[in-house]
Protein 1
Amino acid sequence: MRLFTKKSIITVMVILTGIYSVPVYSAIMGTGSSTANVTNIIDLQVTTISHDLGDIRTVLVADIKILELQVNNNDSDGYSITIHSTNGSSYPMGANQGHLVHESADAGATTNAGQRPSTPYSLSVAQNATLTDVAGGQFGTDDGDIIDDFLIDSIDHFISYLNATKATINGVFDVTLSQAVDPNLFHGVFTDTIQITIADI
């Protein structure tokens, strides 16, 4: 009689589990910066348009264009224009600033009624959009397009363009002059030199 031994085969499966440790890092932030340095532009060109006002003894002068200003400025606060009459310092005796003065006047003496009009001249400064466009320019402030009929009496006249929204590039301004008639004036030449300066605000 044969004995059969039944072998049981047991298969053991071993599952190996590997645990991998992954290092955790904190977030690290880096920064970089870019800079651009824009050059300051402040420039004023003055062109004389007309200096012949005619016979102010008999003819009213009304808004004759005497100067043309071309302004370039890129200050974020805007710019100012100062208008100065040199007759105030050339003829200090009496109130001669903002007046035309006769060629016979003496710097060391008070001007008389024949040497100086009884009323000062007045000036207006207005933006000239047409010439600005021709120059490929723009006005960078919105302070109004005209400063009308002011006097240069005892002090310089100061105009501020404060509301800058962009650079002013080749902005053209017209300066016009008005002078009342004065029949007391001597014959001859009456003059004043007007100085204009620009500054950042």
Protein 2
Amino acid sequence: MTPLYQAARKLLDVHGTDVEVAHLVGVLESLPRHTLNTNQRLCTEREPSADMWILTAGCVSVIKRDYAGTDQEMARIQAPALLGHMALVTGKPRSATCDVVEPSIVHLVTQERFVFLLEDLSPQGDAFRRLLISSMSAQLDSGNRAIQRAISEPSARNMSLVESNLHGWNE
């Protein structure tokens, strides 16, 4: 089993997506692959967005500026994961900064490729759409849990977690 196949399988397992692993591998193989070093910046909060990434190896730190203006690490995202997809869906600026914290591999989904995959009726397009929907559902669930936490334990960090998790859902 190749590392790409393993990442695709784990990504589908994590999201409970019932598609053939080979179809997602086909999507990943069709995308430009980038190797990133520690401390490289993937994207910056409030910048315009035109791309998303599929993290297949490594780890990325998600940083959000809180209401006091202080950068807070909201999460460390281990591969495999989707990054930046909400901004592509909504067309809004980035909701967070993502910095690489260990050598990582990402597969770039440009806006043009994103639209193509959404409209693609092939098994690869279906695999991408199902993964995207599942990931967005998980993000909404995480946002709901963050709201519950912010209500029961009010703090600037918990409010930032709510905003970060639900960015784009209020549009």
